[in-house]
Amino acid sequence: MDNFNEIQRQFLDEKPAFLDILGFKGSSFNDETKLYSCIFEPSEVLTHSNGSIVQGGFIAGMLDSAMAQYILHLHEFKVNPLTLHIDVTYLLPCRPAEIQVTSRILKAGKSIVFTSAELTQDGNLVAIASATNKLVPFL
Length: 139
Hints:
Blueprint: H1 4-13, H2 18-22, E1 24-30, E2 35-40, E3 47-48, E4 53-54, H3 56-74, E5 79-90, E6 99-108, E7 112-121, E8 124-137
Antiparallel strand pairs: 1-2, 2-6, 3-4, 5-8, 6-7, 7-8
């Protein structure tokens, strides 16, 4: 993405409030690997088990958000990536501390995009996801 920084500024100026709830800290794009990464720091408010484990629905939201953000940036916010299907596999518990979600586009058509994402914490793979998104114009 040649103009990632410009698009990123636009995104941060208008980012949805739910990202603050999830603990979104920032994102980046690697031109070499074509990977889009997000940093989240979920708080104890998002946990169960006496504040020690982030609830799985929030993990799914972080994975979904990273995949959707990649599509939004790639299309310069001209389309809205509606999630038609998401599949999440949880491998380890996630603590309320910094995590990284790395997403990639597996295949992109005119109106459907297939993505995947990995959520890691302290170098350990915590959860993986794949999604199918329908691209619709913003109203």
